[in-house]
TrEMBL record:
Residues 55-181 form the Integrase catalytic domain. The keyword RNA-binding applies. GO terms for molecular function: RNA binding. It comes from the Eukaryota. PANTHER family: PROTEIN CBG26694 (PTHR37984), PROTEIN NYNRIN-LIKE (PTHR37984:SF5). GO terms for biological process: DNA integration. GO terms for cellular component: nucleus. It comes from Austropuccinia psidii MF-1. InterPro entries: Integrase_cat-core, Integrase_H2C2, Retrovirus_Pol_polyprotein, RNaseH-like_sf, RNaseH_sf. This is Integrase catalytic domain-containing protein. Keywords: RNA-binding.
Amino acid sequence: MGHMSEERTKERVASTAWWPKWEQELGEYINTFERCQKANRKHGKKYGLLQHIEEPKHPWETINMDWVTGLVPGGKENYNACLIIVDRFSKSMRCLPCHKEDTAMDTALLFWNNIISTCGVPKIIISDRDPIFTSEFWTNLYDMLGTKLAFSTAYHPQTDGLAERMIQTMDDILRRFCDYV
């Protein structure tokens, strides 16, 4: 499903092809390939205040939620987004196809049917300040379920580095894969 580095791409090509100066030419091609350059993320350290997030003691007790949007529509339902949910205890991830235009109610049903019904009610949900997650509907849902909502700072993945990095990697894979479908 896609390639994630120059080395991995070279390994794939080496197993099936050869030509004079292939490594040099392939490296130049990869480093100038527009789609990959746009999809690549900068991984340098960012400045900001450290924030302690308590480590969960059980699976699906604390989760991160974020969106991957702007995907090429695909599948029977023409999905153009994914709701990514990462369990901070087990580091497992669920990628739930959806539509960018989904309402708070649509998202709640998706969350209920795919997370709460199979994994239970999380104690803490970490997300960005997306309008869906801050809507009155979701605020009431959190209150009814007894779930605490913790907001990450926009464009500052250090709030929960591992989960955010997993989400970014899935975003990269989906963007590269969906562009070929």
